[in-house]
Amino acid sequence: MKLLSTFAASPYDIADLHLFRDVDIASAAALLANCPVMLTAAGEAVSDPARPRLVIVLRGALADATGDGATTRILPGESAGEQSVLDGEADLSGLKALEASELLLIDADLAWRLIEEADGVARNLLRLLSFRIRAASMQLRRRQKLGEFYRQLSLNDGLTGLYNRAWLNDVLPRLVSTAHATRAPLSLIMLDIDHFKKFNDRHGHQLGDSALRIAAQLLAGALRPTDFAARYGGEEFMVILPDTPGAVAAGVAERLCERMRETMVFDDMRLPLPHVTASFGVACLADGQDDHALVAAADGALYRAKAAGRDRVIVAVEVAVTAQPAA
Ligand SMILES: Nc1nc2c(ncn2[C@@H]2O[C@H](COP(=O)(O)OP(=O)(O)OP(=O)(O)O)[C@@H](O)[C@H]2O)c(=O)[nH]1
Fold first, then answer.
1. CA-based, 20 to 30 A from 308: which of 54, 71, 74, 200?
2. Complex ipTM, two decimals?
3. 130 and 7 within one domain
């Protein structure tokens, strides 16, 4: 930064500076008279950034990088560094000239004198800070919403809209812990579309995708609001039924199996495709079982449903995992 002149010797008018709007100009101008006006080149940082002071843009523009990725433009008449004056904690290293700019620098001591002696400066400062706080909290709210949006996005399967594997990995262990703690039953249904490779080979991948979407809609539409449906991967889905004993879950699986058999897969609303069927494995949480063992039990039952001819439900035999006696 290069010293150009004092404020009194510069061509700038104090009435154009936001901080001095509706202020007793004469007393403020007298206090500002000896403040330096500095020239900064494009891209240059404000020197001595650890020094608390007000930086007012007279010509050009500054960028204020707040450190959280956001950048604010500071235009002629606007200021930066107010907070550094108020709390004495300066970090003006994020201030950089966007173009060749002229800046008025007001040291903290003088800024305090302005606050105390020039009528209206304190009011303008409060207004400015209130505006900054409001803008910062709006930005925070926007980010929180965006974060929530992306979080949701990362937990849902793009093709079917059901929860995805990441969601399952997060939620299933917690549901299992809750079920053990409350001694409430918890059941799991795993289902896998039958001969889906053949379906894809015969009708094409796009129709395969349609079939998966329809299967997902069927699941989501047939369950209670307290149940969860997720895409486990490929053409495999999982249904979680909290507060549901194995016998009831088996009934739900039978109903889903039947509906799957009866559901038409349409391509362009003219051509119904062959029905798809699915095989189902059901398991109910046993004492001492963790989420992995529960999934393995449902998966084992599903495997047996496939082996037994597909398009059917098999219920896993409940095996309580008890502590092994010490040898
Ligand atoms: N269209 C489509 N196909 C998928 C998707 N994910 C997995 N698949 C296909 O699903 C098929 C699964 O094949 P397999 O694991 O052999 O199982 P299957 O043909 O259903 O046979 P069974 O399960 O034994 O009845 C593969 O051809 C995968 O390419 C997807 O998102 N869209």
1. 200
2. 0.94
3. yes
